[in-house]
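Summarise what follows for lecture notes:
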Amino acid sequence: MEPGYGMLCFSSRLFLPSCKSEGGGIELYCIFELSNPKAFMAAEELSELIFVYNADSGIKNALLDGAHKVLSPATYECKLCQLTHGAILEKKVWRNFREQHALPMKFLHKDEFRKEYASKFGHRFDFPLVLGAAHSGLEVVVNKEELNTLSDTEAFIAMLKARI
């Protein structure tokens, strides 16, 4: 790649300038489909992980969510909550991972996320999810569908370690 050219990542496509004609001013680009779009994230260093729960903030919501997790766990709609917390308290294995990891982590409920990031980013996300804050903006590290496939906290931690 020539100096002054950058890489742009949109969705799962990587756009790399392949050449620029000197006389005609035509730029040609090669488009590469990435088999694993998450692999590209390693090229840009993340400054923070943002975990967004599919729940609203507040004591009333926390009590309702805790009861829902106990009474009807199969219908509870926040897999991130189930992976990181029991009915009330944070899971020990998750807390150990969080405390030992060097990358800063922020935990938000969906209403808090929308309030904090709505004016900065016009993204619409399906919650829950894990985002990575990078110089160019927010990148999805683990999406809702991927979270829903995880069987336990250890599998979640392994996925995060592989991607960050």
Summary: DSSP finds six helices and seven strands in the chain. The first strand starts at residue 8 and ends at 10. The helical segments are 59-71, 79-84, 92-100, 110-117, 144-149, 153-163. The chain has a mean pLDDT of 76.
